[in-house]
Design a protein that fits this description.
The chain is mostly helical. It contains 50 helices and no strands. It is globular, with a radius of gyration of 34 Å. This is Importin N-terminal domain-containing protein. It comes from Muraenolepis orangiensis. It is found in: Cytoplasm. Keywords: Acetylation, Cytoplasm, Protein transport, Repeat, Transport. It holds the Pfam family IBN_N.
Length: 855
């Protein structure tokens, strides 16, 4: 006996659906309460599906809403539905997937895929076969509804469909979908391509087995009149280019010609998909060969796509976010940028003739697109552009004063792309005029221009560094004035510009005059913001740079800043603990608060050095750090180890009592899977070693590294493994080598026996770094270890010679150590053998060693 609704119950449900469409919030609240009550009745969901599939007398929005409420119930508690209810819903869905209303068909499709994604693909074995059978229906609505549902299932469960769990249904589904590429209805053709497209990136076996018929079927649709079909064809070709370029190569000429047409498609969604093709092609090794002959056609098309259309300009008057409003333009510019990086100056013959007419065009829209083109090619075509820059720079700087805001803002961006060249010229020629005009634009009346100018100025700061010192007063006046003028979004960019300035000029900022300008507005903002406000992030980052630059100049401000950072860390840890214990009652904390607070504490420790001592003494930071170092989130650990290293340098007496607890945690984090965590842990171990053994007796090779000895075994095996791993990033190799050297400096007896296992990669990773304190301590360690175990270096001695020669000016006592080792080795092997050995040296190395060490 089939389930039938009770008339009174049905009226209640309908009334509820009507009420829930009311704009009144009180009504909405009542609806929510009523829904919760009705959900207690097991067959309430039967009423919902009944309204959706059977009550054709009701209006469509009400029926669809009933289905969407049911979908939410399925999502929340499908596992509690009685089997009879679940069965009734599934049956109704499949019987009504061909409803005459597109809205109802789509709602049923969403409902089906929601049930399927609740693990029901396995327990609803008839679903896929039935939907695939319904595709053969003569009735258009049934075919379209089934395809709509299948497309949603393919989107949600593509991996599961290609697995043994379901007995590989794709073997049947994909050939079936391919048949529908020729269907007379564009909507069906479009669904069919969209279904197959879900399996390209995952390289589903069933699709790979049918790859040639798939590509042929796509070509057959090249001239389709329906824009949705064309868009899906473009999307398929872009993905195939990524995973099966081998199958496209034979047809590449025609594909490129097709994509050239589609990039100019009157439907901008099609044009956008097609434009992605050039971005993907640029990443393929074959790009240069297959595309060179088409640049003549492609470049003008991309350049043309970079103009604002009339619609764009109307939209931008409403001041919508620039990039999101004009995706074609953004995509064309990105494509030109990556192609400039592939073809370099070979692009210019196709571009320069166009560029000249664009840049000096009287129509501002065309001129603006020319400035964008010039910025897009900056990275790839820099060499070839250099001869034209002395003439173009003044023109671009003049565009900063254009009466159109969109021209002013794009000029800011393009100028920032050439900042490196500007700084390489005498300052008066371009840097000074550019800086003067950019600072004016930072105070522009238009928000978009403010934003572009502020970002551009930050880029200029990074390139110019200390070149800016003479203008600091002028720069700070502008940035501080902007504080009063800027609204929320641009303030965040202003913080970045101030932080970058501090990074770029460093201790030059530590002048009373500058501090008095800069600090009051920063501290005002700091006091305005609550602990829960995410705007603290950029302000904390900015203050971290400022504290590091100002050094002792930051002392008057350090107390409240330090206390607040400790509080942020403490609050976040407490919230994380509550969440872990009762995830249903508490929200997970935003750990970024803790990360930026730890980073600012690092900035304070680095800037204030020993002055941070009394702050650390009065706080529980070491206890908090112990918890942060064990956090599940890599970024938290990364910042914790950086802070540990900085505190070790600044105030080791506070760190020392915790070493026994900290070292095993550091050892566990020497895992190169998390590069930055591993890097910072490695660096911290090196800093701790240096502090533990700070009174080494260099002459005898003995050391007071007794306190460090117990921990060598915890960390050394990991460090040796990392330094010998292929494909380890350069910075990690350098840090690992320095830390091994420092460990050996403090505990030579423990580390030297392993010398042979790391000496070669140790030498090759440190030969390229500049002379500095860290390199100095690492090389002292190696020299002491060679003293303890000379045999460990014999086989790789040429690498040691090369590393020694990489020093420009070692300190006298270190030079003396090198001298003793080189001459000791020479005496050991005898003059004749040394001659043979040194014949293998490259000429430059021979010269250096002979000049500096007389060997």
């Amino acid at each position: 006996m089939e389930w039938q609704p009770d008339e009174q119950g049905l009226q209640q449900v309908l009334q509820l659906l009507k009420d829930s469409q009311s704009p009144n919030t009180a009504t909405q609240r009542a609806v929510q309460q009523k829904l919760e009550q009705l959900n207690q009745f097991p067959d309430f969901n039967n009423y919902l599906i009944f309204v959706l599939t059977r009550l054709k007398t009701e209006d469509e929005p009400t029926r669809s809403l009933s289905g969407l409420i049911l979908k939410n119930n399925v999502k929340a508690h499908y596992q509690n539905f009685p089997p009879t209810v679940a069965e009734f819903i599934k049956q109704e869905c499949l019987s009504n997937i061909g409803d005459p209303s597109p809205l109802i068909r789509a709602t049923i499709g969403i409902l089906i895929t929601t049930i399927a994604s609740k693990g029901e693909l396995q327990t609803w074995p008839e679903l896929l076969p039935q939907l695939c059978n319904l595709l053969n229906s003569e009735d258009y609505n049934t075919c379209e509804g089934s395809f709509g549902a299948l497309q949603k299932i393919c989107e949600d469960s593509s991996e599961l469909l290609d697995s043994d769990a379901l007995n590989r249904p794709l073997n049947i589904m994909i050939p079936k979908f391919l048949q529908f590429f020729k269907h007379c209805s564009p909507k069906i053709r479009s669904h069919a391509i969209a279904c197959v497209n879900q399996f390209i990136i995952g390289r589903a076996q069933a699709l790979m087995d049918n790859i040639d018929p798939f590509i042929e079927s796509l070509f057959a649709l090249a001239a389709d009149e329906d824009s949705e079909v064309r868009k899906n064809v473009c999307r398929a070709l872009v993905m195939l280019l990524e995973v099966r370029v081998d199958r496209l190569i034979p047809q590449m000429f025609s594909i490129i010609q097709y994509m050239l047409q589609r990039t100019q498609d009157p439907d901008e969604n099609v044009a956008l998909e097609a434009c992605e093709f050039w971005l993907t092609l640029a990443e393929q090794p074959i790009c240069k060969d297959v595309l060179a002959g088409h640049l003549v056609q492609l470049i003008p098309i991309l350049v043309n796509g970079m103009k604002y259309s009339e619609i764009d300009i109307i939209l931008l008057k409403g001041d919508v976010e620039e990039d999101e409003a004009v995706p074609d333009r953004k995509c064309s510019a990105a494509a030109l940028d990556v192609l400039a990086n592939v073809f370099r100056d070979d692009l210019l013959p196709h571009l320069l003739p166009l560029l000249k007419s664009l840049l000096f065009h009287p129509d501002w829209v065309i001129k603006e697109s020319g400035i964008l083109v010039l910025g897009a090619i900056a990275e790839g075509c820099m060499q070839g552009m250099v001869p034209y820059l002395p003439e173009l720079m003044p023109h671009l700087i003049a565009c900063l004063c254009d009466k159109k805001a969109l021209v002013r803002s794009i000029a800011c961006w393009t100028l920032s792309r050439y900042a490196h060249w500007v700084v390489s010229q005498p300052p008066d020629s371009h840097l000074k005029p550019l800086m003067t005009e950019l600072l004016k634009r930072i105070l522009d009346g238009n928000k978009r221009v403010q934003e572009a100018a502020c970002s551009a100025f930050a880029t200029l700061e990074e390139e110019a560094c200390t070149e800016l010192v003479p203008y600091l007063s002028f720069i700070l006046d502008t940035l501080v004035f902007a504080f009063g003028k800027y609204q929320h979004k641009n303030l965040l960019i202003l913080y970045d510009a101030i932080g970058t300035l501090a990074d770029s000029v460093g201790h030059h900022l530590n002048q009373q005059e500058y501090i008095q300008k800069l600090m009051p507005p920063l501290i005002n903002k700091w006091n305005e913001l609550k602990d829960e406000d995410k705007d603290l992030f950029p302000l904390l980052e900015c203050l971290s740079s400022v504290a590091t630059a100002l050094q002792s100049g930051f002392l008057p401000y350090c107390d409240p800043v330090y206390q607040r950072c400790v509080t942020l860390v403490q609050k976040t840890l407490a919230q994380a603990m509550m969440y872990n214990q009762h995830p249903d009652q508490y929200e997970a904390p935003d750990k970024d608060f803790m990360i930026v607070a730890l980073d600012l504490l690092s900035g304070l420790a680095e800037g204030l050095g020993g002055h941070v001592d009394q702050l650390v003494a009065r706080s529980n930071i070491m206890t908090l750090l112990f918890q942060c170092m064990q956090d599940s989130m890599p970024e938290v650990r990364q910042s914790s180890f950086a802070l540990l290293g900085d505190l070790t340098k600044a105030c080791f007496p506070h760190v020392k009592p915790c070493i026994a607890e900290f070292m095993p945690i550091l050892g566990l984090n020497l895992n190169p899977e998390f590069i930055s965590v591993c890097n910072n842990a490695t660096w911290a171990i090196g800093e701790i070693s240096m502090q533990m053994g700070s009174d080494v007796k260099e002459q005898t090779g003995e050391s007071s590294g007794a306190e460090m000895q117990p921990y060598v075994g915890v960390v050394l095996p990991h460090l040796v493994e990392i330094i010998n791993r292929p494909n380890t990033p350069k910075t990690l190799l350098e840090n690992t080598a320095i830390t091994i050297g420092r460990l050996g400096y403090v505990c030579p007896q423990e580390v030297a026996p392993q010398l042979q296992q790391f000496i070669r990669p140790w030498c090759t990773s440190l030969r390229n770094i500049r002379d500095n304190e860290e390199k100095d301590s690492a090389f002292r360690g190696i020299c002491i270890m060679i003293g303890v175990n000379p045999g460990g270096v014999v086989q790789d001695f040429i690498f040691f010679c090369d590393a020694v020669a990489s020093w420009v000016s070692p300190k006298d006592d270190l030079r003396e150590m090198f001298y003793k080792i080189l001459h000791g080795f020479k005496e050991q092997v005898g003059e004749e053998n040394w001659q043979q050995f040194s014949e293998q040296f490259p000429p430059l190395l021979k010269e250096r060693l002979s000049a500096c060490y007389g060997v």
